[in-house]
Amino acid sequence: MRTHFMAGINRDGFDKVLERAVDEALDQADHLVLPGLSLALGPAPAIGRVFRSSLLTTLDAEYVRTTRSKGLGERAIVLRHVVRNSLNAALSMSGLQIGFMFAGVLVVESVFSRPGPGGYLSASIPVSDFPAVAGVTFLLGAVHIVADTVVDVLQCAAGPRVTV
Questions:
Q1: Of 8-12, 83-87, 102-106, 141-145, minimum mean pLDDT range
Q2: Helix (H, G, I), strand (E, B) or coil at 61
Q3: Are 154 and 98 in contact (CB under 8 A)?
Q4: At a CB cut-off of 8 Å and minimum separation 6, what does 17 contact?
Q5: 79: left (phi over 0), alpha (psi -120 to 50) or beta
Q6: Burial state string for 106-136 with b = 16 or more CB within 10 A and e = fewer than 16
Q7: What is the number of other CB atoms lying within 10 angstroms of the CB of residue 89?
Q8: Is the pTM of this model over 0.85?
Q9: Distance, CA of 32 to chain centre
Q10: pLDDT band at 52 (very low <50, low <70, confident <90, very high)
């Protein structure tokens, strides 16, 4: 005789648990908006400046003039050709800015009273907790390596001249 895996659970109680979990998740997401924005607003102007200058340089390229002379619309030119060729510089800049964002995590965590690796690191340094300092440093280094790898993969996908 097969029984359903939920047979012993009060379904009303289970629904309440799921509903409460969703409410708590939404509440936590609300509290992450301002810290996330404050971390993202620092590197955003630098990345935007690099992307804009790369777009302007690419718009003056000869192949863009050639596509215009062939009769392709401006929107198609920008979306298919210009943006794709201009993304490499912005992606490289965003990979560099990730390291600077890690430096800002400590300040953002203390301002918004959010627990995280920055607060743990700042509490571990004065008491000479070497394993904690090494662990957080290793974690941040691993995240930085993964982020750089993702940036490299995105550059290969976006740039027609970039190969692995």
A1: 8-12
A2: coil
A3: no
A4: none
A5: alpha
A6: bebbeeeebeebbbbbeebeeeeeeebeeeb
A7: 19
A8: no
A9: 14
A10: very high
Q: What are the tens digits of pLDDT across the range 88-129?
A: 888 888 888 887 887 788 788 888 888 888 888 888 889 988
Q: Which two tokens stand for residue 61?
A: 């390229």
Q: Is 90 exposed, middle or buried (0-12, 13-18, 19+ CB in 10 A)?
A: buried
Confidence label for 5 from pLDDT (cuts 50, 70 and 90) = very low
How many C-beta neighbours within 10 Å does residue 93 have? 18
Q: Which of 108, 102, 99, 93 is nearest to 44 (CA)?
A: 93
The single-letter code of the amino acid at 83 is V
Query: Under 8 Å CB-to-CB from 21, ≥6 apart: which residues?
Result: none
- CB neighbours of 81 closer than 8 A, spacing ≥ 6? 58, 63, 64, 67
- Other beta carbons within 10 angstroms of residue 54's beta carbon come to 20
45: left (phi over 0), alpha (psi -120 to 50) or beta: alpha
Res. 48 pLDDT band, cuts 50 70 90 = very high
Q: Amino acid letter at 14?
A: F
